[in-house]
Design a protein that fits this description.
Layout: E1 2-8, E2 11-18, E3 22-26, E4 33-34, E5 45-50, E6 53-58
Parallel strand pairs: 3-4
Antiparallel strand pairs: 1-2, 3-5, 5-6
Length: about 70
């Protein structure tokens, strides 16, 4: 099982266990992980678990995705 830790300016704002094969992340309320910050696009990224690995794909967000 994967885990996502989201930080902004060095401050942890989300700490989430990844329990689904595919998890969406964005500012809009229908995402699995919602981050209410203007730096985050409405549909920002998707995390995909394959076995013990987790992959992240940016969904053409305005500000990009950094890991």
């Amino acid at each position: 099982m994967g885990k996502l830790v989201v930080s902004l300016d060095g401050v942890v704002i989300k700490d989430v266990q990844l329990t689904k094969d595919k998890t969406t992340l964005g500012r809009r309320p229908y995402n699995d992980i919602v981050i209410d910050n203007l730096a985050v696009s409405g549909e920002h990224a998707v995390l995909q678990m394959l076995g013990n690995d987790v992959f992240i794909e940016d969904l053409n967000s305005t500000n990009g995705t950094y890991i």
